[in-house]
Amino acid sequence: MRLSRYFLPVLKETPAEAQIASHRLMLRAGMIRQQAAGIYSWLPLGYRVLRRIERIVHEEQSRAGHIPMLMPTLQPADLWRESGRYDDYGEEMLRIADRHGRDMLYGPTNEEMITDIFRAHVGSYRDLPLTLYHIQWKFRDEIRPRFGVMRGREFYMKDGYTFDLTEDDAKHAYNRHLVSYLRTYERMGLQAIPMKAEGGPIGGDYTHEFLVLAETGESEVFYDAEITDLTFGDREIDYDDHAQCAAVLEEFTSRYARTDDTHDEAVFHDRVPEARRRRSRGIEVGQIFYFGTKYSEPMGAVVTGPGGERVPVHMGSHGIGVSRLVGAIIEASHDERGIVWPEGVTPFHCGIVNLKQGDTEADSACARIYHALAGHGLEALYDDTEERAGAKFATQDLIGLPWRITVGPRGLKNGVVELTSRRTGESEEMSPEAAVARVAEIYAGR
Ligand code: P5A
Q: Of 146, 322, 324, 325, which is best to mutate to test ligand 1, by the most ligand atoms within 8 angstroms of its C-beta?
């Protein structure tokens, strides 16, 4: 993409309304625009990141054997009357009446709707286990929407729903989600720690939240420092293997790690030596729940078991805050000059800065680099504007592409361009071909 033809409305001034770095940087980098409290348009740069996160989520869901689908944002109130949550959900639910006076709502989550789909189409234990998920906009009329996309009213969520015959099978589905979430977050360059949590309006007391440690996080967290040494890495896992998934859960949840909802100071002191006790804050980027028959029983989601008996299915639901993740990644990865995207989610793989637009040599070298990168399947944002070099660098630093190739007539005379890492700030001179090859190597297999 040529910057001269792109839509990147960067802001020079720091917006006064933004209290935390990610919100400030998303506004300054022209990623989002607020349309109403907690409701945002995703401008082209922000939309690219959202899509990349979404793609990682889909890939990891598919790896775990989960099936994608799409449910609507608007739901009939009657489904929620069946589960009893229509009244329970309170003012967070946006309630709407259609022209016929029928009660509708903008879905804050989809347990009822998926249960309705299940009961209409599945009748036998032979069709289990089943995991269906979608990535769809949600609405929660939060009393205090804030921090940009971190606590929005309209937000994008991956929500998956599991159906199993027995509690044991449902716990495996839970464990499988935990494993696949660890992989998902790591691919985005994040360490998200599973912490014992509370079921809240979704239900059940068998639940973990995934927290990214950050001073600006909304949750207070208490944990054993040892837990931060754990990484999932690229280990092979068989998602159908109950014992393997259970072992990962055990490994990642046996140390003390809780949010303030479940924190118990006495247990904390008892289980964790003082030197390893940490109190900090975190951003909740996901939560998994096992809630048994909470929805299947009142809504009649029953199957015929192996002995011919009719039994309500055991269910769980599992969420990832897709739009919140954009903010969480920035909180975890930025400096005083701007965003520093991890390679896994960057909106463009590489920036190209032409130091002398209009210079025949520089222009054609930039074009060659641009096409060579494209030949490797890599997308570059080519700053072909007439801005001066300092302004171009400032924009590149602000929008945070991990790699930048700088091209100028002086370097070209010696046959070199400069390859710069956004993270370390280190630059290296090399031939244009070598720079392209290096960037291609960095992204190989991603
Ligand atoms: C699990 C999937 C649920 O809703 N039902 C379907 C279950 N869980 S949850 O914890 O309430 O939400 C899942 C994740 O969504 C993100 N999230 C938000 N993101 C931005 N703004 C909000 N107002 C908001 N509320 C929830 C969180 O990442 C949460 O973990």
A: 324
